[in-house]
Amino acid sequence: MRVKQIADALDISVDTVRYYTRIGLLVPNKSHNGYKYYRPADVTRLRFILSARALGFSVNDIKAVSYTHLRAHETVLDL
């Protein structure tokens, strides 16, 4: 999915998608022509981010949870 497609799918603005990409909460793939492509996992992650924000979590809280989740996942893979 491209930026507009993910924004339309989640009924948000392209600026919102770009914001979360810019701050590192979303990391899309880039094609050879420079377009960013979002995977289904990115859509799921963005849904989580939007839900957490709606519940009152700060961006820093979400970053902390995301980092903790990634570290836990890496630890399991190291076993």
Write a short abstract of this structure.
The protein is mainly alpha-helical. It has helices spanning 3-10, 14-22, 40-54, 59-78; strands spanning 29-30, 36-37.
Task: Tell me the β content.
Answer: 5-15%
Report mean pLDDT, rounded to a whole number: 86
Point out poorly predicted stretches: 72-79
Assembly state: single chain
Trace the largest sheet across and list its strands.
1-2
Structural class: mainly alpha
Largest sheet: 2 strands, antiparallel
β-strand number = 2
Count of helix runs: 4
| Approximate helicity band | 55-70%
- Distance between termini? 33 Å
Question: Can you describe this structure?
Answer:
The protein contains four helices and two strands, in the order ααββαα. It is mostly helical. The protein has a two-stranded antiparallel sheet. A hairpin with a 5-residue loop joins strand 1 and strand 2. Helix 1 crosses helix 2. The longest helix has 20 residues, at 59-78.
Write the layout of secondary structure elements.
Layout: H1 3-10, H2 14-22, E1 29-30, E2 36-37, H3 40-54, H4 59-78
Antiparallel strand pairs: 1-2
Helix pairs in contact: 1-2
